[in-house]
C-alpha cells in the first residue's frame, strides 16, 4: 500500500502542472490529457484516502484473532467505523469522478487505462461501503453491547420461494460479546400453526394476501424482499414461543457447502458425515429418496442442519478458521444466500443499503428481476434452470422500449424420482406426469414501466400486473413439463434512460443466467 501510494502521488504531481491543464482544455484533442489527469488524481485519492484505513483494519484484524480475540476484534472494528465511513465516501466520490472521465477510443492505451480504473473502482467502492456498514452493525449484532437472540432459518431451494427457498429447519442463535451459541433447533412443522401478528401494509396485502403469508409458514417468504419474511418469522416465533428475537438470518444449503469447505465435515448421529460436496444433495435430493416417512425425513434433515450449523459456529470460535470463513461469508451474502435482518431500526436502515439485507431496492432507475414461487408443492426446483435476457431499444419521446425474455427449463428426469418430490399438492384440473412442475413467474421491472405485449412460447399471454416497493411487477402462472422449456417474452415501455439495469438474482440451486445487451444512447 505504501508503494502504491508513493507511485500514485508522484503520477498525480507530474500531471497537475500548467502544461497538462492547457493541454486538457484543447477541444477534442485534449480529451486524453483530461483522462490521464483524472486517472492519476483518482489513483492518488484511492491510495491516500481509501486504502490506508482498510489496510490498517485488515492488519489489526489479523493480530486480534488469537484466543479470545473476537471480542477485541469487534471493539477494534467499532472504533474504526468513522475512518471506514470516510474511506467509503472517498471511494464513492472517486468512482463518480472516474465515470465522468472522457472516453478516447481513438487512443486505445488511454482508453484501456480508463476502463481498468473504472472497473476496479466498481468493485472497490461497494467493498468500502460494506466495510463501513459492517463496522457500525456487526459489533452490536454480535452482542458487543449486550446479548442478542436471532432466528436462523435454512431455506430449501428445491421448492422456490421469493427470498430463495421454502423455510425449513430453524434454530435460535444467541450472541454475547462475539460468542455464538444455539439455544434450540426445530423443523418447519413446529411453526406450521404459528400466526404472525404483523402488518406489512396495503401494497403487501394486495399482492400476497391470497397466499396467507402471515398464517402459513410455508408461504411466509413469497415476496423477494427479505425484511418482509424476517418480520413474519420473528412474529411467528413470538406467537409460538412467547420469545422475542433481535433479528433473523436466512441460509441455504449452497451457503452451508461454502462454509463446510473451510470448516471441514460435520458428523451426524449415525456416524456419517456432512461435507461441502454432499450437503446440498443430502438436503434437497437424496434425503427424499432415503426416507418415505415424513417424520423420519424431517428428523434427518434437522440432524444435517444441526451438525452443519454447530460445526460452523465452532469454527467461528477457532482463530485459525475464523479468517477463512470471512471470504465465503461475503461471497454467499453477495449471492443472496446469506440474508440478515435486525429488529433494531437504526441497524436495519444501515443493513438495507447493502446486499446482505436481501432488500428489494426501492430507488428509481432501470431494474430487472426474475422471481419464481413454486406452485406445485413438490421439490422439483432442484432441477430448474432460469435465463433472463434483457434487450433495450432506442429511446423515443415516450420512453425506452425494453424486451425481457425469460426462459425456464425443467431438467427433472422422466422417471426415478420419489413421489414426495414429484407430488402435485395443487391438484391441477388438467392431466400431468411425474416430473411436471408449476411456477408463479414474476418479472420486476423499472418503476413506471408499462407492459405493451406479452407472449408465452410465441403465443399471446395474459399476465397480471402489480406494484412492489415501487417496481412494476408482471406475473404469470406457468406449467412447466418435465424435460421441457418455456419462454415468456415481455415487451415494456420504461422511463427514458441509457443506463443498464440493476439485476435482481433470486438464489436457487442453479444460479440465474442473465444477459444484458448494451443500451443505445438516449438523446434529449
Structure overview:
The chain is built from 14 helices and 18 strands. The chain has helices at about 1-15, 20-25, 30-65, 70-80, 80-100, 110-140, 200-210, 225-240, 255-265, 280-290, 295-315, 320-335, 345-350, 420; strands at about 150-160, 165-175, 180-185, 245-250, 265, 275, 340, 365-375, 385-390, 400-410, 435-445, 450-455, 460, 465-470, 470-480, 485-495, 500-505, 515. Helix 5 (about 80-100) packs antiparallel against helix 6. The radius of gyration is 25 Å and the shape is globular. The mean pLDDT is about 95. It starts with a helix and ends in an 8-residue tail after the last strand. By secondary structure, it is an alpha+beta fold.
User: Percentage of helical residues?
Assistant: 40-55%
- Report the end-to-end length measured between terminal Cα atoms: 44 Å
Number of strands: 18
Q: Figure out the total of helices.
A: 14
The gyration radius over C-alpha positions equals 25 Å
Q: How much strand? A: 15-25%
Structural class: alpha+beta
Q: Average pLDDT value?
A: 93
Can you tell me the overall shape?
globular
Reported for the largest beta sheet, the result is: 6 strands, mixed
